[in-house]
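User: Please run a holo structure prediction.
Assistant: Happy to. Please share the sequence and the ligand.
User: Here you go; the ligand is zinc ion.
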Amino acid sequence: MDGDFRADFVREPGKLRHHPALVLNADYRPLSYYPLSLWAWQDAVKAAWLDRVDIVAEYDEYVHSPSTRIRIPSVVVLKDFVRPQKRVAFTRFNLFLRDEFRCQYCGGRGDLTFDHVVPRARGGITSWENVVAACSPCNLKKGSRMLRRNRPVCPLCRSLRESDNVHFR
Ligand SMILES: [Zn+2]
């Protein structure tokens, strides 16, 4: 966490049991959404110690050093505003979110996988621009099937957030 507040978010669900801290920007919005900006408690304690964050809320548990003990922060807010991240992490969840959890060939919602629009065998790369959500049947029989929409693109964080309401019904 030296200088870059965005690099070290907790991504493995297992670690969420161990007192992660929600990191808010100076405007009290999460620093990032996908993944949600959660620090390991060690990073939160260190940031508080370095006076980079204010502690908004705490767990009931304490951590001890030889000379002191402090309550583990559960929510911290950055003292300095960090400009929101423009690029979205290329992850399974974010890709499905961009594609609204629908197959990009038939529009179905079942059994989603990934499909390389230009197959890897023909030099297609794994990127926002060349990977779409596809149901297994479409993926298997794709051949010359056309995408329902235009070229896939790399989304902005904001565009993923704005479409939040659409997905989880
Ligand atoms: Zn399909």
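The radius of gyration is 20 Å.
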